[in-house]
């Protein structure tokens, strides 16, 4: 997934503003994008969903729907920016049955606080997450906001519209638990346990792939990619998923599916989705101009239970 500093990967932006960054030594934006998209070890998400199946024979055989977006708002002129009046339409494109949401920008009031105390995340994204209630929402961008929060939702859906005005926490939130990670420089792993092994299990049973409690919520349709790591790569894309062995997704839940046509399914899914873990995984701990030099955080590891897809014949083939 791109970010606002990846100026060569935003073709329209680079055509207009490339000289400001690289003077007369401009890069070939199309070639830069191909370097990423043609890599067999990368699933690049450019404001789009993908349904991933892990098919390695000795792997977990898990399946999940992920949505990734490079968009963020920043002071100044940077790649993959958007205006506030476009925010609701932008984040309404996240499918409502998404399991994991990865965005460069954080949602407002969650892992987005600057040293001056201001919360600078996106209000519309916060509102969209309150409707989708994914298992995991990963962000960055606000370096000082690194860490994680467990957001506990109210049982009843209060509002089905994405809000764009800055205000107090959404009425959909019951309470928020801020997690604690080892301090910078610690040799301990920065682990977020959502399985119940070390910390309380995530209260979220609503998956895009039907689990034991939601077979009546879903129907079969084709999906995106299969990930089958080989001995030489960590996450190579081996094939497109076929309709025969595709994990299920409700036919009305495509891009922009937060409208009235999906409300019935959304209500049903939300009864199973009572908690979301929001993680700001920023590795660089300081913002530009990095006074005193850049400092770095250790990676955050999230332990999360996911459903297992059933076609083991394909996995073992």
TrEMBL record:
Residues 195-204 have a biased composition (Basic and acidic residues). InterPro entries: Metallo-depent_PP-like, UPF0046_metallophosphoest. SUPFAM superfamilies: Metallo-dependent phosphatases. Residues 162-257 are annotated as: Disordered. This is Calcineurin-like phosphoesterase domain-containing protein.
């Amino acid at each position: 997934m791109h970010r606002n500093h990846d100026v060569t990967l935003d073709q329209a932006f680079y055509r207009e503003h490339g000289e400001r960054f690289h003077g007369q030594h401009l890069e070939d934006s199309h070639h830069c994008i191909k370097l990423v998209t043609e890599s067999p070890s990368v699933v690049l998400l450019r404001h789009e969903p993908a349904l991933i199946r892990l098919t390695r024979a000795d792997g977990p055989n898990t399946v999940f729907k992920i949505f990734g977006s490079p968009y963020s708002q920043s002071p100044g002129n940077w790649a993959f920016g958007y205006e506030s009046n476009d925010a609701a339409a932008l984040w309404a494109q996240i499918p409502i049955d998404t399991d994991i949401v990865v965005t460069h920008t954080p949602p407002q009031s969650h892992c987005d606080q600057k040293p001056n105390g201001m919360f600078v995340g996106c209000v519309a994204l916060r509102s969209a997450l309150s409707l989708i209630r994914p298992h995991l929402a990963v962000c960055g961008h606000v370096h000082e906001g690194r860490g994680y929060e467990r957001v506990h939702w109210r049982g009843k859906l209060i509002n089905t519209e994405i809000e764009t005005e800055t205000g107090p926490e959404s009425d959909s939130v019951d309470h928020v638990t801020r997690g604690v990670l080892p301090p910078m420089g610690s040799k301990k792993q920065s682990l977020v346990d959502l399985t119940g092994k070390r910390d309380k299990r995530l209260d979220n049973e609503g998956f895009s792939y039907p689990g034991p409690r939601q077979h009546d919520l879903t129907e079969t349709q084709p999906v995106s990619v299969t990930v089958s790591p080989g001995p030489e790569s960590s996450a190579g894309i081996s094939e497109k998923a076929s309709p025969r062995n595709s994990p299920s997704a409700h036919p009305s839940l495509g891009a922009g599916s937060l409208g009235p046509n999906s409300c019935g399914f959304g209500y049903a899914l939300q009864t199973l989705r009572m908690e979301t873990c929001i993680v700001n995984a920023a590795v660089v701990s300081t913002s530009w101009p990095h006074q005193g030099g850049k400092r770095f955080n250790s990676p955050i590891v999230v332990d999360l239970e996911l459903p297992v897809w059933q076609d083991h014949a394909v996995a073992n083939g």
